[in-house]
């Protein structure tokens, strides 16, 4: 971390770190001095993120896993070793009429966004408790706080992460493990067309969508000792959209 330059590197794991907010978070945490574990399913994109971190003087490695497959989660965790910061960013999105969502896609949303985070935390948080410190950061969404037509299932997955945050903070924070949620609004990523993101951004107080780097700054704050008295919180990084 920036104020401990001569201390051993601490380890930050970012799931879904090969693009978008996850990639931005991995780069930002590496710049703060963390040894970053870049998670994803695409080895080529993972190698590109690791190379970008190395080019900036940071340290990173790539670990591949399909966290929607419950059988892969244990193997993924085994490769991590001690973890100081966990960023639960991996997930997928689906928007459309409720009647158009088939069972397989519904299950996929909850497997990717909810079940994966739950069981990764179940494996890693007790080890953090044993060491007496750690920071878990869940990636929610403004969709988990407000009603959005066509977003019933996706919004429910993000609301679940906010609920996890409250319960996990009650469970783990007395032992020194902080748990918080970053809840972005519209962000320019590859998840949806830029014009659609811009249209949603126009509904915010700022009248614009965010860049992924702006979300990563808040993640970096929650990963650091600067947020030592913060737990169980939902950080809205949505240009004021949930305020109105």
Keywords:
globular; single chain; 7 strands; disordered N terminus; 7 helices; Rossmann fold; 244 residues; alpha/beta
| Mean pLDDT across all amino acids | 95
**Major beta sheet, specifics?**
7 strands, parallel
Helix content: 40-55%
Named at the architecture level, the CATH assignment is 3-Layer(aba) Sandwich
Number of domains: 1
The CATH topology turns out to be Rossmann fold
Terminal CA distance reads 36 Å
**H/E element order:** EHEHEHEHEHEHHE
The CATH superfamily is NAD(P)-binding Rossmann-like Domain
Number of helices: 7
* Rg value: 17 Å
Proportion of beta-strand residues: 15-25%
Give the uncertain stretches in residue-range form.
1-7
General form: globular
**Strand order, largest beta sheet:** 3-2-1-4-5-6-7
Number of strands: 7
Please describe what this structure looks like.
The chain is of the alpha/beta class and 244 residues long. The chain has a single domain, classed as 3-Layer(aba) Sandwich (Rossmann fold). It contains 7 helices and 7 strands; from the N terminus they run βαβαβαβαβαβααβ. The chain has a 7-stranded parallel β-sheet, with helices on both faces. α2 links the parallel β2 and β3. α4 packs parallel to α5. It starts with 10 loop residues before the first strand and ends in a 7-residue tail after the last strand. 43% of the residues are buried.
């Amino acid at each position: 971390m920036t104020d401990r330059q001569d201390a051993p590197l601490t380890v930050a794991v970012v799931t879904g770190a090969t693009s978008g907010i996850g990639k931005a978070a991995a780069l930002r945490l590496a710049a703060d001095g963390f040894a970053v574990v870049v998670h994803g399913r695409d080895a080529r994109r993972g190698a590109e993120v690791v190379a970008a971190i190395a080019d900036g003087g940071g340290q990173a490695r790539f670990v591949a896993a399909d966290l929607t497959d419950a059988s892969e989660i244990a193997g993924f965790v085994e490769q991590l070793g001690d973890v100081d910061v966990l960023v639960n960013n991996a997930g997928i999105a689906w928007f459309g009429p409720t009647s158009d969502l088939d069972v397989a896609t519904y299950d996929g949303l909850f497997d990717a966004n909810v079940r994966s985070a739950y069981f990764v935390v179940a494996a890693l948080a007790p080890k953090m408790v044993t060491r007496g410190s750690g920071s878990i950061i869940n990636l929610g969404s403004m969709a988990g706080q407000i009603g959005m037509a066509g977003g019933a299932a996706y919004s429910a997955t993000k609301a679940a992460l906010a609920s996890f945050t409250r319960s996990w903070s009650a469970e783990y924070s007395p032992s020194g493990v902080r748990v918080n949620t970053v809840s972005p609004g519209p962000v320019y990523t590859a998840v949806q067309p830029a014009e659609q993101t811009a249209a949603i951004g126009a509904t915010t107080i700022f009248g614009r969508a965010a860049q992924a780097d702006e979300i990563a700054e808040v993640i970096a704050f929650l990963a650091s000792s600067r947020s030592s008295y913060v737990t169980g919180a939902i950080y809205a990084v949505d240009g004021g959209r949930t305020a109105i």
